[in-house]
Amino acid sequence: MSQPSVKWSKSGLPWIWLNAGAVSISLIMVIGLLLLITVRGMSYFWPADVMDAKYQESNGRVIHLIGEVVDSQVIPAANARDNGYTIENELELTRFLVKVANRDVYGNDFRLVLEPFLTDISYPKNIMVVERREWGNAIGYLRSVKEHGKVIAEGDKARDELMTRLKSAVATFDTIRDIQKHDIGSINYQLEQLRLKRRGLELDGVTDKAPYEEIEQEEKQLKQQYDTLLKKMEVLYEDIRRDSMVMEAMNGTTFEIPLGKVVRAYYPNEMGVFDKLVFYVAKVWEFVSDEPREANTEGGIFPAIFGTVLMVILMSIFVTPFGVVAAVYLREYARQGPLIRLIRIAVNNMAGVPSIVYGVFGLGFFVYFLGGNIDALFFPEAQPAPTFGTPGILWSSLTLALLTLPVVIVATEEGLSRIPRSVREGSLALGATKIETLWNIVLPMASPAMMTGVILAVARAAGEVAPLMLVGVVKLAPSLPLDGNFPFLHMERKFMHLGFHIYDVGFQSPNVEAARPLVYATSLLLIIVIVLLNLTAIRIRNRLREKYRALEN
Q1: What is the DSSP letter of 485?
Q2: 65 and 113 in contact (C-beta within 8 Å)?
């Protein structure tokens, strides 16, 4: 006699399908979000064509419009009628967001226009786009090139002359920047160290003139080098201020741009696919390797990438030993009882504390208390200016290490609990001590679990922003925490972070429309950095797992 069939609703299949559907929806949402970020972010670097058209405004006046169509949307025709436009028999129409650039001329980079009122649209090949170090891009027609205010080339000859002189101006600017950042920066750093050394001698009550004279001699040599560099820079500045170009924008408006303030100039309408691809690669490389400019809305984000990666590495170095030691004590040495259970509950609850609370704790304990006492004990000559008693990358790393400590503890404890008791007993039976068993057998076998904790810690710490705003991250850091000046790694310095950069560009930028593509591009880069860090840790974990798999069996 056959068994009665189990009802489908009681078989568990509905819950299986429900979970499968939830997972599928989650994957679709994640993939969709990544595609949105990728498309919006990476399309920013592609050199779009620039149109030349006539546009009729609501008052009937026809203007000359030059710009790049950035976005479009369909709006109700009633909205246009409310703004004074005459539209008949239309329920909807397309509105374009056009980047007209020339912010110093028009006051705004962007303009909204309605498609039905655009006429005589063309894409002339001689429209030029100029990337500037200030005031954003400039778009228009090149009219002439000047040297010391005198026209030396105009018309068709102006283009070749511009490209030749622009190449020289960019090289000169790069030389000036290298001198400022490396040579003059190094001299200023050495002068500051000598000042602190003299102040330290004064605080110690040293009356012998020999060390003071030695400091003065070194200062004299450094100042001579400084004066030599200043004279060299004056010559370079004269060269960079010598040339300029005149452009004609919309409605015949002309304006002059010094070549020293130009990053590059190009003609997008005459570029082929291969030329645009080369340009695209160059822009992407600039984005990941250069410094930001124009209130972080132009240029690159290398300092933010560097600061994020260095902070995560330091955080991992700090959190791993403390998390492992705490887990080993709780699992291997502590006498299990109510107190240990209470400690485990506290550790688990720490993982749910809002991150901003850790930031407040880090500011109060690490920065003000610990950093202030370090300054008083080891850096009295720098007082009242703080050295470690101010937010910096060290305190940021320690704060995030504290934030992610519960994750490492829990993951390591789980790994230790999975090691068979027979392995420990076998090691002890062969004459090994408990510490030898722990160090040579237990911890290596638990290392994959430790790496799992580190992976989870990295994934959380790399994206945190709130606590970092209190303990070290800044909008723009003039120098990296790692450079060529002793002691090379400057743990007291502030730094830039990709997460905070996204917040700053997206919500604090004075030019929201210009900054929006950078938010997507930076978000994509932050995801890539986190994935690369996690893949590195996962690879290490997998190698450790394969290495000790035989012991587990």
Answers
A1: S
A2: yes
Strands of 185-249, DSSP E:
243-248
Tokens representing 253 are 């408006």
Residue 340 pLDDT greater than 60, yes or no: yes
Q: Which of 531, 550, 546 is nearest to 37 (CA)?
A: 531
Please list the residues that pair with 96 across neighbouring strands.
72, 113
pTM for this structure?
0.87
Contacts of 183 (CB under 8 A, 6+ apart): 225, 229
* Host H or E run for residue 400: helix 393-417
Q: Is residue 405 part of a domain?
A: yes
The alpha carbon of residue 110 and the mean position of all alpha carbons in its chain are separated, in whole angstroms, by: 25
User: How many helices (DSSP H) and strands (DSSP E) are in the chain?
Assistant: 19, 13
Residue type, 516: R
Q: Give me the domain span that covers residue 453.
A: 306-497
Q: Are residues 448 and 386 in the same domain?
A: yes
pLDDT band of residue 550 (cuts 50, 70, 90) is low
485 and 346 share one domain:
yes
Distant-in-sequence, close-in-space partners of 127: CB < 8 Å, separation ≥ 6: 50, 52, 66, 139, 140, 141, 267, 268, 269
Q: Please indicate, yes or no, if residue 424 is contained in any of the structural domains.
A: yes
> Are 108 and 159 contained in the same domain?
no
| Rounded Cα distance, 287 and 178, in Å | 19
User: Which CATH number belongs to the domain containing residue 413 in this structure?
Assistant: 1.10.3720.10
Residue from 491, 458, 490 nearest 370 by CA: 491
Residues 422/424/429/432 CA torsion (nearest 10 deg): 160
Tens digits of residue pLDDT in 317-333: 999 999 999 999 998 88
Place of tokens 């002439």: 144
